[in-house]
Amino acid sequence: QQQVKQSPQSLIVQKGGISIINCAYENTAFDYFPWYQQFPGKGPALLIAIRPDVSEKKEGRFTISFNKSAKQFSLHIMDSQPGDSATYFCAANQAGTALIFGKGTTLSVSS
Amino acid sequence: DGGITQSPKYLFRKEGQNVTLSCEQNLNHDAMYWYRQDPGQGLRLIYYSQIVNDFQKGDIAEGYSVSREKKESFPLTVTSAQKNPTAFYLCASSNPPMYEQYFGPGTRLTVT
Fold first, then answer.
1. What's the CA gap between B55 and B60, in Å, rounded?
2. Which of A2, A27, B28, B87 is least surrounded by Cβ atoms within 10 Å, i.e. has the fewest?
């Protein structure tokens, strides 16, 4: 019930394409869903986050889509660039509890 | 320039030795966290602290210890009881606790 399942494990996208990473959760009490971006040898950086009262949040080329009934949320990267090549982690939690992280997706954007 | 600093970036130790990893933040955050990252495993929570002089075990606390004597500092000791200590260790902080966690650059520990 506490797991966050992330897919795919790895993803290769052409430059200019759309990258889509999916996460699923079981605990309906979760109320915070962030995405992190991590470059090799660096710490993760908070990219974008959403609360369950909205179905979509957009920041630049990055969009979170949230489906409360399906208990799924996804990250869409529009116009993917080689500089977006990194590992992406989804996470979820409810108030006062620890973030539960997915196992990560390694994105490679080919030029 | 606000942020989280971790030192050292790389650390090498012999098996059986305790080692302490440093984490400092100047973001004035109440909560601080330690995670361990192994390839393909995501981030696993070791310990967290929501206030000075208080901390709680995470999912994989065995073989680790922490202290929180100052708001800015949350050092992690990897003891000789930790069976497989070689990993990438990440410190994070947040305010309010548990949301919007910001990570440091990490310390890569290698034990041989």
1. 14
2. B28
